[in-house]
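Appendix B, record 7
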Amino acid sequence: MPADKPILLGIDLGTTNTCVAYVRNKVARVVPSDKGSLILPSVVAMSDKGDLLVGNVAKDQMVVNPRNTIYGAKRLIGRQYNSKVVQDIKHYFSYEIVEGPNGEAAVVLAGKVYSLPQISAFVLQHCKRVAEATLGQEITEAIISVPAYYNDNQRNAVKEAGLLAGFNVKRIVNEPTAAALAYGLNRGFDHKVLVYDLGGGTFDVSVLQLHGNVMEVLATGGDTFLGGVDFDNRIIDYVLEEFRTQTKIDLTQSPIAMQRIKNGAEAAKIDLSLLSNVVIELPYVSERKGKPVDLRIPISRERINALVMDLVDKSFQIVERVLGEKNLNRGDIQEVLLVGGQTRMPLVQGKAHQFFGKPPRKGVHPDESVALGAALLAESMQEIDSVTLVDALSMPIGFAMPGGRFRKVIEKNIQIPSKSSFRLPPARDGRGLELDIFQGDSDRIIDNEYLGTLKFPAEVAGQRVNFILDEECLLHVTIESASGDTRELTLATKDTPEALKVAWQEEAERRRIDAERQALTPEEQSRGLFASIRKVFGGQ
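Structure tokens (predicted):
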């Protein structure tokens, strides 16, 4: 390969594994990791000696060093520490998750706090070194894929991770779009494909119209908390409960035992894609009165299917919703592409066949297609007749209104790049204005992700504000004066404003009361109503 043509990497930065690809002589190939495998565990650890470990070596020592081994960073990156999702999943990790300097989720490694972009940068740096050693030249540019359902904070955090790793990140691309590229580039297709991407930590679904080398995303959706890890957690919970029933021993307080069970659950899940029955066996997992206690729990494919059926059903409910948003029928989809390691599960494949009435496409590699597609996009950006990607926004963006309501400025599934505008209201009493910006599908801000705050001085009242999405689906905000002058604004990355916290707490309290009321019988509800009336009028 001529040295004057730089190599651009395509990187699929996954929850559990990372895959790196490049293009040579028009053919996309995966870069083997330092252990010869085509995927690298997305794991970072600090050894007892203070050495930073990344990939397989980090994963191999996870059982004996669970507190200082970081995995699953993709689920936490770009999220506020106090957000409901972080609080809900914190207890599943064996390492410490803390609040960073700007209110974001961060992690503790050997007593030091690291941001999630820093942790992801360690993985990306390792990928960079391995690729440079394999391909024999310095590599400075990359395209990194993200879940289509990532919000603006998460996308910016991944881009930051790439920069920290020493890459010029040419573009952030949505994972399903990259997978469709790997499937359809230069194939002359003219049909609709649906990409069902169920990875280690996230689920995405995108419907694309392929027309030659034009790939247009029609609709997209997903869940950044639905993936193989959740399937593992169901098995882990089952094993813990069975062991507790057998022995009256609770293993949840032992990080080493929990890590061994996690590894055993994942191995059993993988084996049950080929076998009907396996046994999870862990010798000396605990002790009683000084004697070792072994764990031995049989588990069948039918049992696992029952444990995770609702997760699979949930994914197809999302598929149904995405199709419905564009008034598409299942029969409108010519090809179904299954991407992500969890789609190897026979239950998922069977449900996809049943849902669409035809088998999913076989020629797409679940682990490699996203990285290969990203590499093909990177190569195409250097060509004159490059591929045309028309992607779409997965979640609306807007601002907070009084009473915790959410006003959308940019609707979901709008094709990007795009621009939406609104006028600022008149200033009150000569004071400035603050707008709290959110992204999400709910009409209430409590369920959406806080992106930051825009601050406007009083003199800009009545001017036009533009929300601009670039081709990476990243948000830029500009303000436009009456004379047509524009300037870009920066979202303040402060903690959630106090007034907003109060609104959230009030909303949460209202929901709690509603939930309690719904759980009551009609008689109990009416008694509660009369009790409230008595309280208002001073009765007992």
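Remarks on this record: Residues 397-496 form a domain with the Substrate Binding Domain Of DNAk; Chain A, domain 1 fold (CATH 2.60.34.10). The chain has four domains: 8-226+313-390, 228-306, 397-496, 501-536.
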